[in-house]
Amino acid sequence: MALDLVFLGPPGAGKGTQARKLAEAFGLAQLSTGDALRAAAEAGTKAGKAAMKAGSLVSDEIVNAIVAETIDTEEYVNGAIFDGYPRTLAQAAELDLILKSRGRHLSLVLSLEVDDMMVVQRISGRFTCGNCGEGYHNNFKQTKTEGQCDQCGGTDFKRRADDNADAVATRLAEYHRETAPLIEYYREQNKTQSVNAMQAIDKIASDLSTLVKNAGIQPV
Length: 220
Ligand code: AMP
Description:
Helix content: 40-55%
Shape: globular
Strand order of the largest sheet: 2-3-1-4-8
Order of helices and strands: EHEHHHEHEHEEEHHEH
Bound molecules: adenosine monophosphate
Structural class: alpha/beta
Number of helices: 9
Distance between the termini: 15 Å
Strand content: 15-25%
């Protein structure tokens, strides 16, 4: 049976980093709508690209369509860790339908809790390896050898265009207005489990892993 999980949390909470680790440990596949939109940016609509750059949400129609299409690819037959989706109540309702029509359902929703000040600190200073996507931070997680990715040895690093002060303020406001209500939406379905995401990366990972195991899901 497929296993589907959602990661909720503000920008900079570490959803991508943690979803990546959890996917590896439990043999699941990560589905990040932000990554999908960035990858599709060239093909994407003008409106979608402008919204992303400014830190606003892309329309529900666009992201729902991406998820409905992606989930049917081979990679996700055993389940998905949704990272950055759903972000609105309408998307959550659509995800329920997408899964239901495929005989699947959400098993667990992991909410990463971080305060706004920490979000700003984390986002300003983060960068990723342009080759393998490993995440780093100027202060919190530097590469072991300067200028070289610990994972793949790559030397080309990227910073996101929307990791600037104006876009971060918009992304935080969107999070509080549109996405935070989902914590309660899923709590009413007994699916939400929260983690203190202000701790060290490895401690957050082990807390998440415990919650997943407690839900009856075992590592590979
Ligand atoms: P992320 O990489 O998850 O931080 O997403 C980067 C940007 O992509 C967001 O600020 C939005 O503009 C857009 N985006 C990603 N996922 C969604 C979503 N589920 N709904 C609407 N917009 C999204």
